[in-house]
C-alpha cells in the first residue's frame, strides 16, 4: 500500500514537472532585448534647429522653430550690428570691464581676464550683449568652453537693473574654485553652496525684480547627470565645449538644456514681462558661493584665462 502511494506521488510530481517545461514556465524564457540606443554625436546635431530636436523632438506639433539671425552667430568676424560691450562693474569685486578684453578670434567669441595695475580693480575683463532683444516662446543656445580660473563664466538673458529686471541665467560656471572654497571640512552640513561641485555643475536660475522686491529660484544641473550615451557626460566645463540652452516656453516657464538633454526647469510665481538681451561675461568675487578669487598670476596665463563661445543660435517658436 505504501508503495502504491509512493508511485502515485511520484507520478504527480513527474506530470507537474512536464507541464512546467511547457508554456507555464517562464524561468527559461530569455528576457526581451532592450532597444538599441545610439550614442549622441554632438558634432552631427542639426545646426538649423535647437540641439534637442535632433535627440528628442518635443516641439509642439502645430509649431515650428524660426531662426532669429540677429541673435545668432558663427563668430567668423566680430559683428557690431549684433553685439556690443557694457562697462558697469560688479560691486564688492575686483572686476573692471573694458571692450579690449573681448573679440572674435579663430572663429570664436572670446572674453579674457587680464591683470590690471590697480590694487582694487585688478581683474580686467569684458561683457558682451546682443543688440536685439527677444521674448517667449523662444530658444537660445551656445557652445561654450570656460576659462580655468576661479571666476564665473556666464551665458544669460537680462533686461533692467538691480531693482527692476527680468533675468534668466542659463549657466554660471566656475571650473576652478579656490582650494579654500572647495574644502568641505570647515563647512556646516547645511552649507547652502557647493563650490566643490562647480567644475561640472551648471548653475541655472532666474530673477524677477519689481521695486526692489526680488523673486528667485534655481535648478542646478551637472554634466555628471547626462545620459551614458552623451560624450560630454562628466566632463568639466573647461575640458570641452558644452552646448547650453534655454527654452523660454511661456511667461512663467523655462526649460534648460545641456548637450541636447533636458537639464532642469524653473517655474516662476509671477510673469516675465520684458524682452531680454543675450549676455556673456567673465567675473569673480571673494565669496565662496562664487568660488573665491583667482591668483593674480593666473591672469597672465593665456592657457587658462579665456572663455570661448564657438557659436550661438536663437529661434522663435511660431505657428506653422
Give the strand content: 35-45%
Structure annotation, total helices: 3
Q: What is the CATH architecture assignment?
A: Sandwich
Distance between the termini: 86 Å
Instruction: Using the coordinates above, name the CATH class.
Output: Mainly Beta
Uncertain spans: 1-29
Strand tally is 19
Radius of gyration: 27 Å
In terms of structural class, how would the helical and strand content be classed? Answer: mainly beta
Tell me, rounded to a whole number, the average pLDDT.
90
Taking the sheet with the most strands, its summary is:
8 strands, antiparallel
Helix-residue proportion:
under 10%
Domains, number: 1
**Secondary-structure element order, N to C:** HHEEEEEEEEEEEHEEEEEEEE
CATH topology: Jelly Rolls
Shape: globular
Topology:
Layout: H1 2-20, H2 51-55, E1 63-67, E2 83-85, E3 95-97, E4 102-105, E5 108-112, E6 114-115, E7 123-125, E8 127-130, E9 138-145, E10 152-160, E11 165-173, H3 179-182, E12 201-210, E13 213-218, E14 221-222, E15 242-250, E16 253-258, E17 261-267, E18 277-283, E19 306-319
Parallel strand pairs: 3-7
Antiparallel strand pairs: 1-19, 2-8, 4-5, 5-19, 6-7, 8-18, 9-15, 9-19, 10-11, 10-18, 11-12, 12-13, 12-14, 15-16, 16-17
